[in-house]
């Protein structure tokens, strides 16, 4: 015995009609996708800050500074303005270099007095207490002027 179309429609729910459980499941899936995207974005920002030197900075409008203001604030007051000549600098001037304290500055002066003027900035590595790391820190801040006769 065949069922009529009207009986079939009454007993079988239409696939177009969503039940409350279907709606809840759909909302749950959408929330999971949004939370997952938020996690991926946060992880991306963390990895960006870990592997690139440029930090992500979020400013309020009142906190924005110009580049010249930032660099003026960033410079320490003891930073030398001009390059220091190893052949004419005093111990006090040498102490303004990063990694050079009173003892190393005096050692540089004594080396210069004992062996004569420096012929290159690399020669400062011959001074006791000044190694490769210290040289790398100061190499852009020092010069050796050749005396003209």
Q: At the fourth CATH level, what is the homologous superfamily of the domain at 84-143?
A: AF1531-like domain
Mean pLDDT metric: 78
Largest sheet: 2 strands, parallel
Q: Look at the structure and give the CATH class of the domain at 84-143.
A: Mainly Alpha
Structural class: mainly alpha
Strand order of the largest sheet: 1-2
Distance between the termini: 124 Å
Poorly predicted ranges: 66-77
- SS elements, strand count: 2
Number of helices: 6
Shape: rod-shaped
Under CATH, the topology of the domain at 84-143 can be stated as DNA polymerase, domain 1
What is the ordering of alpha helices and beta strands? Answer: HHHEHHHE
Instruction: Give Rg in angstroms.
Output: 36 Å
Strand percentage, roughly?
Answer: under 5%
CATH architecture of the domain at 84-143: Orthogonal Bundle
State the helical fraction. 40-55%
Tell me what you see in this structure.
This protein is mainly α. 49% of the residues lie in helices and 3% in strands. It is rod-shaped and about 115 Å long. The protein has a two-stranded parallel ribbon.
Notable characteristics:
149 residues; mainly alpha; DNA polymerase, domain 1; 6 helices; 49% helix; rod-shaped
